[in-house]
Each structure stands twice: as C-alpha cells, then as structure tokens.
TrEMBL record:
Reaction equation(s) it catalyzes: NADH + H2O = reduced beta-nicotinamide D-ribonucleotide + AMP + 2 H(+); NAD(+) + H2O = beta-nicotinamide D-ribonucleotide + AMP + 2 H(+); ADP-D-ribose + H2O = D-ribose 5-phosphate + AMP + 2 H(+)
PANTHER family according to UniProt: NUDIX HYDROLASE 2 (PTHR13994:SF29), NUDIX HYDROLASE RELATED (PTHR13994)
Family from the record: Belongs to the Nudix hydrolase family.
Pfam families for this protein: NUDIX, Nudix_hydro
Cited InterPro entries: NUDIX_hydrolase-like_dom_sf, Nudix_hydrolase6-like, NUDIX_hydrolase_dom, Pre-Nudix
One example GO MF annotation: NAD binding
Record EC number: 3.6.1.13, 3.6.1.22
Species for this entry: Brassica campestris (Field mustard)
Every Nudix hydrolase domain range: 214-346
Name recorded for this polypeptide: Nudix hydrolase
C-alpha cells in the first residue's frame, strides 16, 4: 500500500508538472524508459558513449544530442567514435523520444474511448486541487501501472511535440555507423568529401525533405576584344577533344561562388586572360547532364582587361583570339542549334541591339545575393 501511495504521489507530480513530456502512448513511454536504462548501463562501460549521449530534459530518456532545425526537425552531428550496437540503441531511444506525434495518432485511433473519457472528464477539471484528488483516486482505483499509462497519454494530449525530419551527420571516420542508421530506416541524403548526411522522416504523412542539389551551374564566356576577335579554346578532354573545334571557354561555378565571379575565374584559369564581367546574355537548362543532375548553363559576356594568352596545361589544348566571323563559320557552330542561337545573341550584344542581365547586389535580413536583370529597360521606365 505504501508503494502504491508513493507511486500515486509520483503520478500527481507528473500531472502537475507542465514541463514533463511523454511519448504519446503508454507502451512507448515504458519502452523508452527501458531503452534509456539500457543506454545508461552501456554508458557506464563506454566513455565515448557518455560523451555522445544526453538526457532529454522533458522525458528523461537518453538521446543523441541534437539541435532543432527551422522545419520542425532535429539534426545530430556524431563526433565521437562509438560501438555500432550502442549507437543503434541510442538511435532507437532518440527516435522513440522524437516520434511522439506518430504514437499519438495511433493511440487516438486505437483507444478512442479512453481519449473521449480524458477529454470529457479530465480536461475540464482545471483546478490543481481537483486534479490532485482525481489522480489519487484514480491511482488507488486502477493501480499505479494503469494510471501511469493514463498520465503519459494525458501529458501527450497536453504537451506533445513530435519531430519531423531527423538528420544524422556522420564524419568520414565514423562511416561505420551508417549501417546501424540505415537499419533504423534512415536513407542517404547527400555526401561531401568529409561527411555523409542521412535523414529519417517521422510523421506518417509523406516527407517534405527536399532532395539534395538538383542542378550543376556552368558558364560559357563570350570575350570579344576591340578587333572583333573572340577568345576561343580547344579542349584536351571532354566530348569535343581532338576534333579541332574552337569554342568559348566553359566551366562550372564552384560552391559559394557567384556566376559573374565564376566566369572571370574560368577564363583566367583556361586562357590566362584577365576580364571584367559585363552581363549574363542567356541561359539554358538541360536534364541528366551530370549523373542525374540537371544543368544550368549561363552565357556570359566579359570584357578583356589583358590580351596575352597563357593556356592552361591540364585541360586546354590551345587558346587564341579568333576573328568573330571565322568562329561563326565553323561547321560545328553552324550545325549546333544552341551555338547558332548563342552566336546570334552575342552578335546582337556586340552591335548594341541586345540587353542582357546585370547583377545587382541585393540583401535580405538573412541572405545576400545578386539579382540578374535587364537594368537598361527597367531604368528607362523610371
Ligand atoms: N564543353 C562545351 O563545349 C559546352 C559546355 N556547355 C556548358 O558549359 C558548362 C561547363 O561544361 P564543360 O566545360 O563541358 O564542363 P565539364 O563538365 O566537361 O567539365 C567541367 C570540369 O570538370 C572536369 N571533369 C568533368 N567530368 C570529369 C570526370 N569524369 N573526370 C575528371 N574531370 C572531369 C573537366 O575536366 C572540367 O575541368 C556546362 O553548363 C555545360 O552545359 C555548353 C555547351 C558546350
């Protein structure tokens, strides 16, 4: 009886403490507790696990340390080595803690009578004293286990906060833990040179996780000098190697690089010529260009600041200033629809009959970037 009373007291404290949160159904509450116990005993024998794990402030369950993202999810970055089975158990307890929303749904469906009872009888009883009286009576009548389950459910209705996406960032040296995460239902989202990012979606509804970068961004540089000569190259590698084709310098924009900076860099790297960015003249989108990724190709006009050519050894067979007419007469250019359009656009631009997009620095509270637009036509209207 004294044990019952002690448990009743615990139940009353549980009801009175709004900071306490439980997984939504009683069973998951008990499961989480037992997993947490398992983790804690593992922690005692493994200092690395100790460094990793932390106790969830609301549920008391041992979970992976995580920060919340802006989309209702959590991100955990694993930084210390640990045993895969310990990681697996920790992951399970973390997911159990973060999964409260899903459990709430299944509870509502399967235990609709209890839910109605709680909503009809318990919720309207706002007064603290009434709650205490109700809790004590309920505990004595139903026994501590059943009342504890009901308390967990009640807490869930009052304070549930389930997570959505769960991200795990694994550095290269801990890649062995990926298997455990995959077994728990995680999938690969993206990989960089030094880490693998996995993700898991908790809600039953379909995930809203955006796929990783879908496009590669490339540039082609139209650089024309005062003698109406255009800067062209022959490539050592790629689809046009060894065909004697003279083409605009092209390349790929780096991560964190603006299109206009990337075009100036690519021209310098491939030909040694210094340039100043003028405008984006046009862009093309294609699909399945680089593995499964699409391609955005920006045709940029650049003004030469130097004329001396110093062709890049690794990628460029030859580079030169070529008369514009000669460039356009190449069969390769004439027979290629994209290049025919590019030639027409560049000619129009060189003759002053075409306006491209000029970058304008724009700032938002959390972002800085460039808006590329036709400044001439806009300004002529204002
Ligand atoms: N190359 C061309 O004649 C044309 C290119 N473009 C556009 O220009 C932009 C850049 O294209 P490209 O210059 O052709 O770039 P690319 O994709 O051929 O190569 C970019 C860089 O990556 C390297 N690279 C690519 N795949 C590689 C691999 N498997 N192994 C080792 N190195 C590799 C290349 O050597 C180069 O340094 C793209 O947006 C493309 O659509 C558009 C029309 C024609």
């Amino acid at each position: 009886m004294s044990c019952r009373l002690a448990k009743s007291y615990g139940f009353i404290r549980l009801l009175m403490n709004p900071r306490l949160r439980f997984p939504a159904d009683g069973f998951s509450a008990f499961r989480s507790c037992s997993t947490a116990t398992r983790i804690r005993s593992m922690s005692a024998s493994s200092s690395s696990t100790n460094l990793m794990a932390g106790e969830d402030a609301n549920s008391g369950v041992t979970v992976l340390p995580a920060v919340e993202d802006k989309y209702g999810g959590v991100m955990t970055e694993i930084s210390h080595p640990m045993d895969p089975s310990a990681f697996s158990a920790l992951l399970q307890s973390s997911l159990s803690t973060w999964t409260t929303q899903r459990h709430r749904k299944s509870f509502e469906w399967q235990s609709v009578d209890v839910t109605l009872f709680l909503k009809a009888i318990v919720f309207p009883m706002r007064a603290r004293e009434t709650m205490c009286y109700f809790a004590t009576t309920l505990t004595i009548a139903l026994g501590p286990e059943v009342t504890c389950m009901i308390a967990a459910c009640l807490q869930t209705f009052l304070y549930t906060q389930g997570k959505k996406g769960v991200w795990i960032k694994l550095p290269r040296q801990l890649i062995g833990l990926a298997e455990a995460a995959v077994k728990e239902g995680f999938w690969f989202h993206h990989a960089e040179k030094d880490y693998l990012m996995l993700v898991y979606w908790i809600p039953i509804e379909g995930d809203t996780i955006p796929s990783n970068a879908s496009h590669r961004v490339g540039i082609g540089a139209f650089v024309i000098n005062h003698n109406k000569e255009v800067l062209v190259v022959q490539e050592k590698t790629g689809r046009f190697q060894g065909q004697g084709i003279w083409k605009f310098p092209t390349g790929v924009v780096n991560e964190g690089e603006y299109i206009h900076d990337g075009s100036v860099r690519e021209v310098k790297e491939e030909t040694g010529v210094d340039t100043e960015f003028v405008q984006v003249l046009a862009f093309r989108q294609t699909h399945k260009a680089f593995f499964e990724k699409s391609d955005l190709f920006f045709v940029c006009m650049l003004k030469p600041l130097s004329l001396e050519i110093n062709a890049q050894e690794t990628e460029i067979e030859a580079a030169q200033w070529m008369p514009w007419e000669e460039y356009t007469k190449q069969p390769f250019v004439q027979n290629h629809e994209l290049l025919r359009y590019m030639t027409a656009i560049c000619s129009a631009k060189a003759n002053g009959d075409y306006e491209g997009f000029t970058p304008l620095r724009v700032s938002a509270p959390d972002q800085q970037g460039n808006l590329y637009f036709n400044t001439r036509d806009l300004h002529s209207r204002h």
